[in-house]
Amino acid sequence: MTIVPVLMAAIAPGIALLSYFYLKDKYETEPIHLVAKMFLLGMLLVLPAMVIQHGVGYEFGNGNFVLSFVSSAGLEESLKWFVLVQLIYRHASFDEPYDGIVYATAVSLGFATLENVFYAFLGLPSFAALLYRAFLPVSGHALFGVMMGYYLGKAKFKPEKAGLYLTLSLALPIVWHGVFDYILLLSNWIWLMVPLMGYLWIRSLGRISRANDRSPLRALGSEEEIKA
């Protein structure tokens, strides 16, 4: 496979999934430049993550649990969460619960996309390998982003429980990401991965629907329809 087709195949899944989640915003789509910024920031997180992961492996070893829950899930989700809390959580454009999902999936898919490019060029790319990465690691990052963004949205719009929801927005993606990676290290991973991905997709679609239903812009839209 030549460079351009490999690069396009590595990038396409992340862009396609981001477009899907972006267009799921029923009431007011987010500024495209801000979503693109979060995507690029997600890409930039890959390099510090790789450096820190190397240090974690040197210090604590590379056992399956450490690789899955500490080096991968714990570190990667913490970096994404930190960026979102610092740059997006109080941003004026974050004005409805679903926006948390848009921005979190943007950061997550930016990370997954550059990671995918590295794997494509450092490994031995084939159509089967790129398809595997599109359906599993890239999709997995997107679904962990939905989880994170859903609870960030709840934290912002239910300030009385903000502490709880902020904690869940970090803890749940770490747990599920860790489970995902741990399964991939098992010899019979396919039998556990298929039901896991099905469950995560179903839960994510439910969160998308609930986040949209809680939008304060929904009532405004209904009033405008009645007046019309």
UniProtKB/TrEMBL annotation:
InterPro entries assigned: Peptidase_PrsW_arch/bac, PrsW
Pfam families documented for this protein: PrsW-protease (PF13367)
Enzyme class: hydrolase
EC number: 3.4.-.-
Membrane topology, as annotated: Multi-pass membrane protein
Subcellular location: Cell membrane
Transmembrane segment boundaries: 6-23, 35-53, 101-122, 134-152, 189-206
Keywords assigned by UniProt, alphabetized: Cell membrane, Hydrolase, Membrane, Protease, Transmembrane, Transmembrane helix
The protein's role, per its UniProt record: Involved in the degradation of specific anti-sigma factors.
Similarity annotation: Belongs to the protease PrsW family.
This protein's name: Protease PrsW
Species the sequence originates in: Gordoniibacillus kamchatkensis
